[in-house]
Structures are given as structure tokens and as C-alpha cells.
Amino acid sequence: MAGREKVTVRDIVRAKKTGRKIVMVTAYDYPTARVVDSAGVDSILVGDSVGMVVHGLESTLQVTMDMMLLHVAAVARARPRALVVGDMPFMSYEASVSEAVRNAGKMLSAGADAVKLEGGALYTDVVKALTRAGIPVMGHVGLTPQKHKLLGGYRLAGKTAQEALEIIHDAEALEDAGAFAVIIEFTAHEVAKKITERLNIPTICIGSGPYCDGQVLVLHDLVGLTPQPPPFAKQYTNIAEEIRRAVEAFAEEVRSAKFPGREMYWGMKQGEYEKLEKQLKEHQ
Q1: Would you tell me how many other CB atoms lie within 10 Å of the CB of residue 243?
Q2: Model confidence over 152-178: pLDDT tens digits?
Q3: What are the residue ranges of helices labelled H in 92-147?
Q4: Domain tally for the chain?
Q5: Burial of residue 237, with CB atoms counted within 10 A of its CB: 0-12 exposed, 13-18 middle, 19 or more buried
Q6: Are 100 and 126 within 8 A, CB to CB?
Q7: Position 1 in a domain
Q8: Sequence-separated (6 or more) residues with CB below 8 Å from residue 140
Q9: Does one domain contain both 83 and 180?
Q10: What is the C-alpha separation between 254 and 250, in angstroms, rounded?
Q11: What is the CATH number of the domain that holds 96?
């Protein structure tokens, strides 16, 4: 936004050192990016959740690189002050390091300030290659929705000591590889707390308790546009109901001929209607 300095990766990292909580929210298009940025969030995540909440897809597995680039570009056109993080979709970074670098580069060319990818220690080579290429990387551990079929569904992660240890090691591996922050999704709060204490980079939680350096929510969950939001989401308003009421009012005014009002339509220049009438009669 005009008059405010752009949030950078360094600002996000510095927030942990100063103890200032990081606020992150998703946005997928130009108008919502403008609105959430005006609210003063630190970061906008153009998440692959767009597939489910905007496109009505069954999961994030159907989201393509082209879809993500379209939404990243739309958000970037709002010129937000917030740091824009583009989500790397399923199979955009798994096949090879070189493909991951090319796809992440496309994200930055579309307007992202950084990229996010799901997974821990298995992807350190990708994180290292991206950071070498000058592409800031946000990691993602705990529940990783792109692997929900392998994990056995969208279940709480880190319930056992062994699983908790693996998640902690994943987060540490991402930091060592050069990630500037890590999202911890739907993970036991004790595990998220341990990760936050052990890492020098910020942790941003979603459904993982209050002990992280920041929190993120999907905008559609936050404003009531998701019919069945996840259990960790909090609805702060009900935009769906507001939209329904507005459309009902519009429909009623159309059917009762109240819309459009006289101030909402305009006529021809003085004398032109009479000329039109005359011309129409001559051509009958």
C-alpha cells in the first residue's frame, strides 16, 4: 500500500527476534489482496488451497502451476505492502531440482516475493538450490495436504514421540537448508512449541497452537465463505450471509421494478430523441 514500506523476508525473520507476532492470511485475487493488505497483515499466502475454496476441487492435488501463476499475478497487481508467498503446487518441485528452480522462478516472475513448499528433510536439496538462485523459501511441516493420501487423510500430526521427533528434524533440516520461515500445520501444540524454541527462523502455525511466532488462516474460513471449515479455523464474520442478503434484496427490487432507480440511468442529448423518432418513422 502507498506510504508504507514493503515487508521483506528480513522483516519476517526480524519479527521472531523482537517477539512481534507474524500475521499471515491467504488471498487469491486482486480485490481480496487489496482488502487484506489494507488490514495490515505481514504476509499474504497465495495458497494452493485456492483449488478447494475458489475452484471447488476435491483437494490441492488437482491444482496446477498455471493456476497458481494466474492467482499469484492477480494478487501481485494489488501491489501489496505484505510479503507475497506463492505456494508451489503438487508435482511442481518433486521431479527434479532443476524443474523446481524453473517453477519457483516463474512464481517470482509472476509477482511472488517468496515461495512455499511442503515437506522437510527430503527436500533440502530443493531448498538449497532455490536459495542459491536467490529465491526465498518458506517451509511447511506437520500435516502436508499434498501428501494426505500417503498420510491417511487430514489427521493431526505429531501425536506420538516418534512422529514428533521426525517433524522437529524436518523443521531443523529446512532451516539448515536456508528456509527463512516454516509453517507448521495441524500438529500437536507441544511439537510446534519445541520447534519454535529450537529454530532461529520464525514458525507460523495453522491449527498447531499458540506457541508459534505467527499464525495463518485461509481467508475463506475466516470470513465464512467455507461451508465446512477445518476445526482449527475461526470465523470472524459471515460474508456468505451478507452476500446472500444483498442478492436477495437486488432480486426483490428487480422483480418489483424498484431497480434501477432514476439516478442510475441516463438519456440522450436534448432533441436527439425526437430526431430518432422522426428517422424511425421515415424508415418504416
Answers
A1: 12
A2: 777 999 999 999 999 999 999 999 999
A3: 97-110, 124-132
A4: 2
A5: exposed
A6: yes
A7: no
A8: 116, 117, 118, 119, 182, 183, 185
A9: yes
A10: 6
A11: 3.20.20.60
Asked whether 196 and 219 are in contact (CB, 8 A), the reply is no
DSSP-assigned beta bridge partners for residue 216: 24
Whether residues 233 and 252 fall in one domain: no
Cβ count within 10 A of residue 76: 20
Span 25-50, pLDDT tens digits: 999 999 999 999 999 999 999 999 99
Q: Which amino acid is at 179?
A: A
Same domain as 216, residue 278: no
Supply 263's cell numbers. Answer: 439516478
User: Catalytic residue numbers?
Assistant: 185
Which domain does 262 fall in, by range? 242-282
Q: What is the pLDDT of residues 183-237, one digit of tens each?
A: 999 999 999 999 999 999 999 999 999 999 999 999 999 999 999 999 999 999 9
User: 203 and 275 in one domain?
Assistant: no
Show the cell assigned to 213: 511466532
